[in-house]
Design a protein that fits this description.
The chain is an alpha/beta fold and 335 residues long. It has 9 helices and 16 strands. Helix content is 31%, strand content 29%. Strands 1-2-4-3 form a 4-stranded mixed β-sheet, covered by helices on one side.
């Protein structure tokens, strides 16, 4: 059994430990779950991720309940199937789906999971980052997966719903040493229907497009939409499509913050990244680690984050050694 010290990180350690238990067929036990956090133990979104992975491989779970500081996963065969999971809170749906996506590398049959919860919330990649940044990059390297959103969910009620279908896939190496030239930019802006009268989604999109057009001499695409949601909210994502890879930069609307200021936050994050020579943004660098572990490759990122290092260390526990090293003003990640 693989033993993991959960105090070294947060929910990511739990999700990835379950994912790699399913991928390798090795049982795993995570102790002192989120032990360094103010509220230790599993939260509902962590339990939901465990359930999503377990359903794909008929795993036995022990301790998979809210508040538990120890959880064990004993996986079976990755036979796929179909399941539905309701987080019951605004816990991040994209993070739960992140735990499922790598299973494609070992699946014997397709697996479909519908998750209800928060699609666009703090401390997690928004839905548009998953669909417009991460998935296109992974599809270019062999992943066969599709995402069908039904509705968005903002904090605190959540209530969003997304269906992910993953199919048996042969992953190819992530050869992303360089990002190449910037081909185009895209702005994805969304807001609750209750904010339509204030033109929130349109204002976010317009402000972002205007700022980007003064920043880069490439086409800037624009999409804005309104959705019926249980709680009011908004989100804007700037997608940078480079020659070899994509990057994404998002901001969530907050009460009292003008839509234009929300857009500027996302645009400024893009500007800061574009000034570097890195091939992947910091979030993608972390999220690509499971695929790097499975298929090999190399990419660079602007900074060495605690998430990146903790994630790499965990993969080493399963026998997948990933090298994280400083190199010419960027951080090189390779296997």
């Amino acid at each position: 059994m693989v033993m993991v010290d959960g105090s070294m990180g947060g929910g990511q350690l739990v999700r990835t430990a379950a994912t790699f238990a399913a991928l390798t067929g090795e049982s795993v036990e995570v102790t002192d779950v989120r032990g360094a956090r103010e509220e230790a133990g599993l939260k509902r979104q962590h339990v939901a991720a465990l359930e999503a992975v377990a359903a794909a491989c008929d795993a036995d779970l022990a301790g998979a309940e809210v508040g538990s500081e120890r959880v064990a996963v004993d996986p079976g065969a990755l036979d796929g199937g179909e399941t539905r999971i309701d987080v019951g809170t605004a816990g991040s749906v994209p993070l739960i789906l992140d735990a499922v996506l790598p299973l494609a590398a070992r699946l014997e049959a397709p697996y479909r999971v519908t998750v209800s919860g928060g699609t666009d919330v703090q401390w997690a990649p928004p839905l548009d980052y998953l669909t417009e940044v991460k998935l296109p990059v992974l599809r270019a390297h062999g992943l066969d997966a599709s995402v069908t959103p039904t509705r968005r969910g903002f904090y605190p009620a959540g209530g969003g719903a997304v269906t992910l279908t993953v199919r048996p896939s042969t992953l190819t190496a992530l050869d992303l040493r360089e990002r190449g030239r910037l081909r185009h930019l895209a702005v994805e802006s969304a807001a609750s229907e209750s904010l339509r009268e204030a033109d929130v989604a349109a204002r976010q999109a317009d402000a972002a497009v205007e700022a980007l057009q003064s920043t880069a001499a490439v086409p800037v695409l624009r999409e804005s939409a309104y959705d019926e949601t249980a709680s009011s909210g908004s989100v804007v994502t700037v997608v940078a499509a480079y020659e070899h890879v994509r990057a994404g930069f998002s901001a969530l609307g907050e009460r009292g913050t003008p839509a234009e200021a929300v857009a500027e936050d996302a645009v400024e994050s893009f500007r800061a990244f574009d000034r570097t020579a890195a091939s992947t943004d910091a979030h993608l660098a972390d999220q690509l680690l499971p695929y790097l572990a499975l298929a090999g490759g190399v990419y660079t990122t602007p900074e060495r984050t605690a998430h990146l290092e903790t994630h790499a260390d965990l993969l080493g526990t399963f026998g997948f050694d990933v090298d994280v090293a400083d190199a010419d003003g960027v951080v090189r990640v390779s296997r």
